[in-house]
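Record type: monomer structure entry
Structure origin: computed from sequence
Chain ID: A
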Amino acid sequence: MAQLDRQSFEPLYHQVAEIIRGAIESGELPVGTRVPSERELIQKYEISRNTARRALDTLAREGLIYFVQGRGTFVAPNKMQHGLARLSGFTEDMIRAGLKPSSRLLKMQLIPPSPKVARCLHLLPGQQVIYIERLRLADDQPMALNTSYIPYHLCPQLLQEDLENDSLFRLLEEKYGLRLWRSEQVIRPAIATEYEAELLGVALYTPLLLAEGTTYLKEDIPIEYMTILYRGDRYEFVIHMTRDAPIQVTRGAEK
């Protein structure tokens, strides 16, 4: 690894983080390899404990490394890239990435919807929803916490399905003949509560990515209101954009 430039205006912790980042990106430190500890960084670079900790914390926030209590710090797997241009389920995304998807069914029950859920699903008074809460895993590692609200009257038999070993989207389309068409979602940052942190295997208040929205059938009928809490260190969203012809602004319109 490179040495520090103590004459530089760049903070020492940032230099240390850049050295480790370079070793990860070059393959010198492959995925799963142990990263030098705070003590090892202090001895190698003659820096303070605070400097070493800030360097490692910087890399951890970027999702490049992760901490295991009592074992050390390791190079993290590459983040899952999730495109925003196509409607696909978790199972499909993981298979496409070459990972083995699985789910842990936490709850599945018939409940009255909240006013927000009823509004998003266009439900009439008295209509109920099937509430599904699942921990989503890839290669047996927690990736996301997924909740779904499905109108009961559209597929009442869904309550008898095995959603630990089957895909919700596959069941809706292939078994119940409900053709999925589009989804409207909002993505925003969130932090892990104690419940979420325990399930996802992260520390309390760890940054997460929250996707929330509604999925529609071909007839533009709402079929699912969902929220998904993604681990921020395992996911990143990719947006593909094209530019239309620029808008012509006349001089007189400029203020």
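Annotation 1: The radius of gyration is 23 Å.
Annotation 2: The chain has two domains: 12-75, 80-238.
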